[in-house]
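Page 37, continued from 36.
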């Protein structure tokens, strides 16, 4: 058998924005399926979509539902997903790009991580994507080789990804080195240092950009070279008022990693476990920071999509 048609469904709102070449911002769904409990996850989705609309773009939340990749969640599907999330009686997987064909073939449902969302956004012709913080090189990679698919996907799919740097649980300098090896441009949005999720600045310098015009020009120049084209990471610091200093987070991060080791948690379960641990350990201060940076990223992504 030769290639078969991808099971992709476009919600009407995204379909018409694509046809009219209007600004669109893709959103991942793992933060909703594996990041927050119901109903906070549902409120977050509504808030992100609303912000993107307020800033002049169409939101396209990407999710795998019963063997179909959905680009944008229409009203009927929203009801179905909300019912499944609130009842928690139906397996909802965490799906990276390599798992997409397997999940689609089996009729599974799942939240798409950054890697899977990049792949599907690119397939759909969406050029801008907002997330919280990307996955990357895990601490202890020397022994585990645990490096998120997010990094390879960024090198493979030409999409602008707005993120508050990488997740703080990672080996941050190693993640930056890996992004360099993969040839992924990293732009510091109005900052000279790589933001680390909960914390706005870090000791790691990156290239700074201050205007949308500069950023959009850099993107178009990159796309003007012959393919293949990589993605571009726009590192957008959490607003300073809402940041948690690294010195406050580090002891909790160390404890979370020790706990994961003690319980033998690894592979795709590791990132959700560590984030959950931090939420309890910080009495949800980490969740509040996570929500603040997500909103901040949705706004910048909508502004970039509008300026493209
Ligand atoms: N937000 C959460 N929990 C998560 C993630 C985000 O609250 O698990 C996901 C993101 O979608 C990111 C992924 O792409 O974690 C990276 O996971 P891994 O390190 O297994 O590649
Ligand atoms: Mn991993």
């Amino acid at each position: 058998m030769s290639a078969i048609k991808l099971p992709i469904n476009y919600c009407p709102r995204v379909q018409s924005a694509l046809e009219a070449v209007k600004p669109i911002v893709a959103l991942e769904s793992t933060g909703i399926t594996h990041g927050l409990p119901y109903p906070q996850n549902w409120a977050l989705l509504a808030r992100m979509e609303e912000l993107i609309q307020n800033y002049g773009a169409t939101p396209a939340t990407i999710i795998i539902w019963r063997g179909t990749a959905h680009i944008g969640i229409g009203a009927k599907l929203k009801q179905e997903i909300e019912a499944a999330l609130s009842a928690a009686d139906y397996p909802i997987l965490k799906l990276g790009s390599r798992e997409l064909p397997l999940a689609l073939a089996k009729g599974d449902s799942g939240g798409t991580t950054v890697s899977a969302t990049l792949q599907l956004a690119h397939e759909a012709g969406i050029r801008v994507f907002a997330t919280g913080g990307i996955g990357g090189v895990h601490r202890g990679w020397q022994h585990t080789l645990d490096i998120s698919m997010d990094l390879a996907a960024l090198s493979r799919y030409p999409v602008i990804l707005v993120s508050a740097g990488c997740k703080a649980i990672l080996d941050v300098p190693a993640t930056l080195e890996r992004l360099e090896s993969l040839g992924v441009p990293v732009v510091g949005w109005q900052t000279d240092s790589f933001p680390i999720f909960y914390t706005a600045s870090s000791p790691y310098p990156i290239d700074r950009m201050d205007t949308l015009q500069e950023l959009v020009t850099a993107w178009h120049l990159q796309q003007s070279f012959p393919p293949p084209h990589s993605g571009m990471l726009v590192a957008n610091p959490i607003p300073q008022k809402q940041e948690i200093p690294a010195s406050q987070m580090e002891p909790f991060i160390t404890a979370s990693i020790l706990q994961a080791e003690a319980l033998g948690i690894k592979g795709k379960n590791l990132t959700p476990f560590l984030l959950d641990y931090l939420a309890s350990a910080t009495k949800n201060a980490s969740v509040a920071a996570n929500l603040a940076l997500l909103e901040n990223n949705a706004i910048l992504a909508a502004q970039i999509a509008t300026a493209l």
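The radius of gyration is 18 Å. Flag for discussion at group meeting. The chain has a mean pLDDT of 97.
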